[in-house]
Amino acid sequence: MSPEQERDLAWLRAAQANDDRGMESLYRTYYADIEHAARDVALTDPDDSFGVAQLAFVEAIRDFDTDRELISFRTHAGSVMRRALREARDREQAVTVPVTAVRRYYAIMRDAGSFDVAYARVRLGGLGMSAGAFLATHHAVAASCDVDDPDVAADVRQRPADPHTEPDPFYAAELLSMVPAVEERILRLRFDFGDVPTQNARLMMDVAPGTLMTYNNIGTVIGVSRARTQYMYHRAIATIKANVTDTMNQE
């Protein structure tokens, strides 16, 4: 075994035991590999490419078998990152919604006659669909999504998108509650939420209203590096997507 492999195994075992020092050491050492994978299999947004590669790199650390030395960690991580990026590229333009959620959404909309009435009824409860799942389905349908049933998919595409696009503060709060406080702070800064601390921070960094705040600026505000900020941002987005999907699948 080479000195590099011995070093990596020590860091991997530490990282798998939830030792941040092992994770940070691997991240610093393989940062160029993460960047290379993100460039090699690029998505539409370079930041998204890097974020997917980062999350896949963490997954590669978690599932690497340190007791079987069949391949090096570098080879394993590269394979995991490129596979994740290819999968992300394949589904980049697609949004999948469970067919039961779409059918329930349309039943509620038909009975209510308008989005506002439907949403108000869902908020009251008793319709078999949470407000979060209803809004997630609504936004996916408005984007002419793909669903896992051909008949419903055709029905979705034939219906005009609802013009209602106003952000809902209750739904936003529900989504933000799914992630740790520091990641919530990052999302608020990135997407220009209207709370006073966010507005003051954006004003301090001279960020124009309604624009995305850069990872560099966010990192300066919260006191971490750009790379760490970007990693936490994509981890928060992944957590929210997973929770919303789980909620929709359960209903």
**Overall mean pLDDT:** 77
Strand order of the largest sheet: 1-2
Shape: globular
The succession of helices and strands, N to C, reads HHHHHEHHHEHHHHHH
Low-confidence stretches: 143-167
- Radius of gyration, rounded? 21 Å
Distance, first to last CA: 51 Å
What's the count of strands? 2
Q: Structural class of the secondary elements?
A: mainly alpha
Number of helices: 14
Major sheet summary line = 2 strands, parallel
Count of the separate structural domains: 3
Strand fraction equals under 5%
Helix content class: over 70%
Describe the protein in words.
The protein has helices spanning 3-16, 20-29, 31-40, 46-63, 73-90, 99-112, 115-124, 131-142, 150-158, 169-176, 181-191, 196-204, 215-222, 226-250; strands spanning 96-97, 146-147. It is mainly alpha-helical and 251 residues long. It has three domains: 3-90; 96-158, no CATH class; 169-250, Winged helix-like DNA-binding domain superfamily/Winged helix DNA-binding domain (Arc Repressor Mutant, subunit A, Orthogonal Bundle), CATH 1.10.10.10. A two-stranded parallel sheet has the order 1-2. α4 crosses α14 and α13 (215-222) crosses α14 (226-250). The protein is globular. 30% of the residues are buried. Mean pLDDT is 77; it is low at 143-167.
List keywords for this structure.
251 residues; two-stranded parallel ribbon; mainly alpha; 2 strands; single chain; Arc Repressor Mutant, subunit A
Short characterization:
70% of the residues lie in helices and 2% in strands. It is mostly helical and 251 residues long.
